[in-house]
Give the backbone structure.
Amino acid sequence: MKNRIDISFFLCMISIAFFLGVLPPVFTIRCVQELPPWLALIFMTIPVQTAYILSCVLPAWKYCPDTPLRTVLDLAAPAKAHTPKIIFGTLGVYFALGGISAGFVLLLKKFGVETRPQEAVEIIRNGTPATIAVMIFAAAILAPVGEELVFRHVITRKLEPLAGQATAAVAASLLFAMVHMNLQAFPALFLLGLWLTFLYRKTGSLVSAMLAHAVFNLTTILILLIAVRAKDWFSVI
């Protein structure tokens, strides 16, 4: 178990460092900027999440060949009794974090700090149907699977023996917020990370965190789509 977590942790950190260092400069290249938005989004999300998933799955296959993957990676379905907590608890967290984000933005503006929405928000506001379809796939499937494997399963479990459960949860959640590279969303993403860690520990199933992550992302997309359509409607009347 220790060898598997150690190798996965190393691979995850290499993946995070590589993509944080490579993707931002790549997207300043003119030919990349001229890609259709849906293709640029694929280029931006699929390699990252694939690297995350492989960083966790390959060591599991290597070091635990006789144990089912869903057992090694805590991917058993959560008990039905946890469903309300996963869905409705996450919706409650979503709206609470929306208020926190709004307050944080006002605070930043008060100190003269310029803010910008997350890249995903801009894509939904201005994207074509194809781009939004790719975004929904990435937000509802790829990101919840890849990021929960990395931040909740591997990084949190690697740090727990060294620093304890609470410190490990805080450290992993801070890193989770940092890799999204958006100051405006940082507090909300950090607190979301803590909520997802809580669900993982409470239910014993990483699937709980994945489902909650998907609910959170899909709620964001749905609300943004409604807001954009409402704005277009009101601009006509």
